[in-house]
Specification:
This protein is of the alpha+beta class. Helix content is 29%, strand content 30%.
Length: 97
């Protein structure tokens, strides 16, 4: 269920934040090609840092799309990070244990 929700761009926690998109809105933005899909972001982070994504929310910040992610590091630490939704570049937070 988690994987399906994540791939559809849904927040597993269900938290609604100002500037964050609903699942339907997120699917539309991803389908338009404006941003990378959450599956691509998750795969990149797993490859790059060996982290597990626990929650992903697509948000609009300053005219750009970002993913707000909750991750679990290899050391078991939970962290919140922000990733550019077009490039997958880490914008805020740390992947390090």
């Amino acid at each position: 269920m988690f994987a399906l929700a994540l791939l559809l761009g849904l927040s597993v926690s269900g938290a609604a934040e100002a500037g964050c998109l609903s699942g339907g809105q997120a699917r539309s933005v991803v389908a338009s090609g404006a941003v990378m899909g959450p599956g691509q972001i998750v795969a990149g982070l797993a490859r790059q840092a060996g982290v597990r994504v626990m929650d992903a929310v697509l948000c609009e910040r300053g005219g750009a799309y970002v993913y707000q992610l909750t991750i679990l590091t290899g050391a078991g630490t939970v962290r919140n990070i922000v990733v550019d939704a077009q490039s997958g570049t880490l914008l805020a937070g740390s992947l390090n244990q």
